[in-house]
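Following the same procedure, sequence and fold were stored together, as reproduced here.

>
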Amino acid sequence: MSDKKTGWISHINKQAATLVLASTLALNPGAYAQPGQARTDLEGMVKSNSHVVQELTQNKVADVESQPLSFYVIGDTAEEKNLTYKRLLAEMKKPEQGKPKPEFVVHLGDGVFHGRPNEFRLLLEAEKDFPYSIIHLPGNHDLRHEGRKLFNEMFGDSDFFFDYKGARLIFMTNVDLKKRHNASKDYGFTDKKLGWLEQALAGSGKRKKILFSHVPPKMPFEKLTPDLTDLFVSSLLNEDKFLELLDKYDVNMAVFGHRHVYTAIDYKGTILVISGGGGQGNRLESNPRTYFSTKKNHFLMVGIDSLMGLQGSIRYAKPSGREMLPFYQPPEGGLYVSPLPSGDVIPAENSTEKTKARIAKSGKGHR
């Protein structure tokens, strides 16, 4: 797709944002609910996804690439009474010295256990007076029983993208495939959805590309958890094709939940992150075997800046200081790895060949 054909999205406004979202409805016809069209007593307690996008893209600096972008990510918050989620939301409201406030929060899914109305009510009550808008993706637990209908009525479509401050932000549902698409696997991406993803990536121009979905691909992470837990984790439908697209279009970062841990790796130059520590139980999870990972309840803070590139940190439910993420992408290219707590550094030879090439091109190395 040429830059000329996609130029309209560079100046996205309220009407254009609606068109971008509406164009995704072919993936899930009839599931989208416009703000204000109340069909249950739950709808309207928090903003729908389209409402959040419209508010963001109405901003006068919405497509000014030099403007910094800051957002938070959390996943798998389902817990009785949502006590951990409430603590994490309270932490999000605390100002970060020297850092901009988040412009929105992404919930990666599994906010409830069984998709029941009373569970969603507790989730929405926890979020009701939160000062930042939340974009919701569905997890496998959210869509059980009445969950599919309720989720669509409250949050609207969950397959969409929009451009904001030099980044193309792509949101995709990758659960409940057997019921919705008669697929051979419950988690993953249909050929039709991968076609839509390739169009979204191909038309992104020079923007950074960040993707959000619930279930992570298995292959890149399988060596991180070589224990009994891994026996219950299956590969995604069309996983190979999905990973090929991330590589082909130089996606900067892809963020997932589902596993109730935090870990991040460099996969062919793309930062793959699992951030599913929002409160759901993880006794059976082992600590992933990476340089930095945790089973502690947490949320992820991401910042994108024209001078500093893409970077972030995490914060815990029980504050004990922040830990820098094991990645940093400077604007000129390359991928840097943060120092270990011991003060050691991760050697460059642990990077993929594609990342080494980016580092060599930038003229810099790991630090």
User: Anything to note?
Assistant: The CA atoms of residues 128 and 324 lie 30 Å apart. Residues 7-314 form a domain with the Purple Acid Phosphatase; chain A, domain 2 fold (CATH 3.60.21.10). The chain has ten helices and 13 strands. Residues 2-39, 337-351, 358-367 have pLDDT under 50 and may be disordered.
